[in-house]
Amino acid sequence: MMSTLFERLILLLHKHEIPIVLLRVKDISEDTLYSGDFDFYLDPTYKKKLFTFIFDFLSKNEINFFIDQKKYGKTKIFIFNDVEKILQLEIWHYLEIKSPFSRITHYIMPEKINQLILKKDATYVLHPLFEALYYLSHLYTKSKNLLAEEINQRLSFYWTYLQEVSPKDAILFEKLLSRDIDLTQIISQVFLKIKKEYIYDSSFKMSFVTFKIKFLKALHKLSFTARKKVKLTPVLGPDGVGKTTFIEELSRQNPTIVYYRFKKLFRKSLLYKLCFQIQSKKNSSLEKNQIDELMGGCVFLSALSHYPFLLFSAIFKTKSIFSDRFFHDYLLKGVRIHQDKLTYISNKPLLIHFIPNTKTIIQLDANSETILKRKQELNHDIICLYRQHIFHLIIDTPFYQYFYLNTKYDVKDLAKSFLYLNETYS
User: What percent of the chain has pLDDT over 90?
Assistant: First the structure.
């Protein structure tokens, strides 16, 4: 049951001291799970910790997910195994309220919100008064219909809740529910209360924060738009996970997609040929792919020197290029060369900053037993370490959209899910 799994995920996040809080109360059940999204707040300094925990939890349970960061200050996470049933989490890293006087958007920043997060019975919750008032502001900002059943249920919940902690404010909800007043009649009072308690007192600081957020949002949007023009998508995963099969299926479902072998990018490089000659003499018993891994830094730089040619094709040609590897793979050592453990190459801390940024990146995965049936020369421990290391390389560099897809599922369904989500949320 996805609802049970979701509840367990939130409880475990709180247990691991990740203070993610629901912005609006919502019932978690199989009936409501896929209708609308779940709105959360999380301090942006916890993002990597959140991504890592979600990756560990969902990959262990063999569940697909998609992280979307195309908008500044907001992370969307889509959890799915069936494209017809997608659980949507919308995680805000600051909050917005709109002034009823000027219609200008103001921002409540993490340093203010973090003070309003309470720990209750090993779980994190927002201060009840702030959560209730912010919900009224949200209804006004989004011009919501107060007659909707879900909205009425929430208003009733906050009314009951506030009768104990703030009876004076509970009256506002009581009047809204009884239709004695309209939201527009009290929103000024709500806004002024939020502004006084939770937004910067100084008009200058408030204006500076507003300018800063709007500037960063515009910059982020510009950067994402530029990446959209580059029709290149890396597909990462260990040998035997099904990268070729997946890309070929994508191409069948969408003929504008073409399969690109990443090794073509570096093997014609003069630097690569020189390094290969030296290493092949020293390691004559190794296969070509194993030597490539042995000289990962050289491969990385050779590929980087030829990347502008691939970039040109990805921008100006009508086809979308899906590459079966990417630069991340050559920062790892011990995948094909049998060693005691898988490690990063020595100059990884420097080279990681030069990994080209793309709009979308895909990580294919499957349980070790499935991969070993297809690629017997690998081993269980290396597959597990590869899964973790590749993910950390991805989140340690700027990314906009990340897909985790488990190839235990039918490849046609996987390709269909990816194409639907990628097109819908581009």
Answer: 62
Q: 6, 38, 54, 2: which is closest to 363 by C-alpha?
A: 54
**Half-sphere CA count of 46, side-chain side, radius 13 A:** 20
- Return the bridge partners of 321, or none: 232, 258
Where do the H-state alpha helices sit in 142-202? 149-165, 167-177, 183-198
Collect all residues with Cβ–Cβ distance below 8 Å to 207 and sequence separation of at least 6. none
Q: Where are the alpha helices (DSSP H) in 16-148?
A: 47-60, 110-113, 128-141
Task: Give the Cα separation of 49 and 16 in Å (integer).
Answer: 9
Report the candidate in 11, 46, 62 with the shortest Cα–Cα distance to residue 387. 62
Query: Which residue in 368, 97, 69, 86 sits closest to 239, CA to CA?
Result: 368
Pairing label, strands 320-323, 105-108 = unpaired
Residue 190 CA to residue 140 CA, distance in Å, equals 10
- Residue 34: strand, helix, or coil: coil
Q: What CA–CA distance (Å, rounded) separates 273 from 370?
A: 35
100: phi then psi, degrees, rounded to nearest 5: -75, -10
Structure tokens at 13: 């996040």
Q: Phi and psi of 352, rounded to 5°?
A: -60, -30
Q: pTM of the full predicted structure?
A: 0.94
Each residue's pLDDT tens digit, 159-209 = 998 888 888 888 888 888 887 778 888 888 888 888 888 876 667 777 888
* Tokens of residue 23, six digits: 């912005």
d(CA 365, CA 241): 6
Left if phi > 0, otherwise alpha if psi is -120 to 50, otherwise beta: which for 126?
A: beta
